[in-house]
Write a structure and sequence with these properties.
eight-stranded antiparallel barrel, three-stranded antiparallel beta sheet, 2 helices, alpha+beta
Length: 358
Amino acid sequence: MKKTCTLFTAVLLALFTQITWAQEDYQKKVEYLQKQKDRITAQEKDALKIEVETINKRLQAGAINEEEAKALKEAAAKKRALNIENRVAIIDNRIALLERNDGVVISDGMNDSIVEDQVRIGIDINGKPAEEFVFSTKNWKRDLKYDRKTYSDFVIAIGLNNAIIEGQSLNDSPYKIGGSRFFEMGWQWRTRVFRNSNFLRFNYGFSFQFNGLKPDDNQYFVDNNGQTELQEFPLELDKSKLRMDNLVFPVHLEFGPSRFTKSEKKIRYNIDNRFRFGIGGYGGFNLGTRQKLKYKENGQSIKDKFKRDYNTSDLIYGLSAYAGFGGTLLYMKYDLNPIFQDAAVEQRNISLGLRFDL
């Protein structure tokens, strides 16, 4: 008998506790939803404020007139008012659903929602919204610029390299025409010069240049009392190459048409698949110079690498130009500084290849 009474008491206590928890849970859910109504109004007002600021900026920029600005503001205010009305109605329906069912409603157990500038990802426990999983994305969003004037690209260039030697033509160059190459990579920014036209752009950035020269006729570079010159190597060379690594800062004026698009939220100038050409120059400094030799001695393959300055110029400056369609361009650069300092005969690096703006 005592066991039966004890069991009956435990059941009643558990039932009472469950009812109490359900009641408290129901009240918390209603309170949460009421707070959501206030948040909705605040969100929509903030969104309206941003839209009005954008319209004012367009008005100040001369993109629209006073009448257009007024119409856009009225449309934005009407839209936000309807948003508040509809979203609050959804919350009211959820509250009514809870009240009609005494807080017990069918739930899928998982609730993922995105509301304007707020994201909620969490698991509901007994239908209770997990407020600790509510994140504001207001600071995550990047404002969409109405008029974007500056763009950026990753730049890669590759092609043939050689030298213009004082008193000689390029045909008489002691360097292999096809074997001497260059490689360049860097980052550039492209800014529109004029307010209402994208025909002229100002390009600027930085690049790493790797200029290679391969001597012909089994020759290699030798530092002879401050003079860098080519000499015959005593053994048969499989490879002889001098590489100069530079950091430069190119600046170009770029010309060419673009495709203009305009909407209520933005205007853009697109140069994809459009012809363009640029002319300018670069300046920087030499990061290092090294020579690589490959040959065989006594039947053994030997690779020598010499990292020296070889009297190469410390300061690098020159002229460059490019032309082409979209991101594929024919590219040429010419160093105004001599390759070797205090040389009896001056040599200047010249490069021709393809450039890709990615």
